[in-house]
């Protein structure tokens, strides 16, 4: 298996790709919604991974027959983020630090695109790894979030690369659609969802190490 081009840059999603943190995001969402009298299941949260928090909050509330005000959405999302910061641990997937360092030393330009807020990223991602990224796009700095292509288009601009020079590594449908909408080659990981949910990606792998082996050997 080979890439159809030689990439100059790699853009990563965060949760479920670099960090094994989806379990903490689900726990935070489940608790915040439960406190508001709403039940959510793991699959729904995982399928929405990568969306702006405001979109997830409002969509789930409306699905349950609520018509929340902007203040109610903001309050529930703020509660979710507080819970997440309290419980989350920086659990890197096996080999992440080694793999990012290898890419960085070989001259690949690295970007990070996540629906997670800047505060959550700074809390959960070690500074030694954050420094490896030339551009970090978080969910609270753009008007549009995944699955809209804006986050990946912003990352491309920040890296100064064209779509045919970059590969993206994602783990959820909204992130894959965002990357493909920006014209990017997307590799998906089955760390959160099964292959059946990742069919829009160009390649699917079971681990980050397997995906990056294709990049590093190309």
SSE layout:
Elements: E1 9-12, H1 22-35, H2 42-47, H3 53-63, H4 70-87, H5 96-105, E2 109-113, H6 118-124, H7 127-130, E3 135-137, H8 150-159, E4 166-170, H9 173-181, E5 185-189, E6 203-205, H10 208-217
Helix pairs in contact: 1-4, 3-4
Structural write-up:
- The chain has 218 residues and is α/β, with parallel strands linked by helices.
- It folds into 2 domains: 9-20 and 90-217, Rossmann fold, CATH 3.40.50; 22-87, Putative phosphatase, domain 2 (DNA polymerase, domain 1).
- Helices cover 45% and strands 11% of the residues.
- It has a 6-stranded parallel beta sheet with strand order 3-2-1-4-5-6, with helices on both faces.
- Helix 1 crosses helix 4 (70-87).
- The longest helix is centred in the middle third of the chain and has 18 residues, at 70-87.
- The N and C termini lie close together (10 Å).
- The mean pLDDT is 94.
What's the short version?
The protein is of the alpha/beta class. The chain contains ten helices and six strands. The model has no long low-confidence stretch (mean pLDDT 94).
CATH superfamily of the largest domain: HAD superfamily/HAD-like
How many domains? The number is 2
For the record, the CATH architecture of the largest domain stands as: 3-Layer(aba) Sandwich
Number of strands: 6
Main beta-sheet annotation: 6 strands, parallel
Q: Report the sheet-strand fraction.
A: 5-15%
> Which CATH class of the largest domain applies here?
Alpha Beta
Q: Sum up the overall morphology in one term.
A: globular
* Discrete helix count: 10
Task: State Rg.
Answer: 17 Å
SSE run = EHHHHHEHHEHEHEEH
Q: Could you list the spans in which at least 5 consecutive residues all have pLDDT below 50? A: none
Structural class: alpha/beta
Question: Could you give the distance between the termini?
Answer: 10 Å
CATH fold name of the largest domain: Rossmann fold
Give the overall average pLDDT: 94
The side-by-side strand order for the widest beta sheet comes to: 3-2-1-4-5-6
Determine the fraction of residues in helical runs and give it as a percent range: 40-55%
């Amino acid at each position: 298996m080979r890439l159809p081009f030689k990439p100059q840059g790699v853009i990563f999603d965060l949760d479920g790709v670099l960090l094994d943190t989806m379990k903490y995001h689900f726990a935070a969402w489940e608790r915040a919604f439960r406190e508001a009298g709403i039940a959510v299941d793991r699959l729904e949260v995982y399928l929405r991974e990568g969306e702006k928090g405001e979109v997830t909050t409002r969509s789930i509330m409306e699905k349950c027959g609520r018509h929340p005000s902007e203040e109610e959405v903001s309050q529930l999302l703020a509660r979710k983020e507080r819970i997440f910061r309290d419980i989350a641990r920086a659990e890197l997937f096996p080999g992440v630090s080694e793999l990012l360092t290898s890419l960085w030393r070989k001259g690949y330009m690295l970007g990070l695109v996540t629906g997670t807020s800047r505060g959550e990223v700074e809390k959960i991602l070690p500074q030694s790894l954050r420094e490896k990224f030339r551009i970090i796009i978080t969910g609270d700095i753009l008007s549009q979030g995944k699955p809209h292509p804006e986050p990946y288009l912003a990352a491309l601009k920040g890296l100064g690369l064209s779509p045919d020079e970059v590969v993206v590594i994602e783990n959820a449908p909204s992130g894959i659609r965002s990357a493909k909408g920006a014209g990017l080659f997307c590799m998906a990981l089955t760390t959160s969802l099964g292959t059946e949910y990742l069919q829009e990606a160009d390649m699917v792998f079971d681990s980050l190490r397997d995906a990056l082996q294709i990049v590093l050997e190309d």
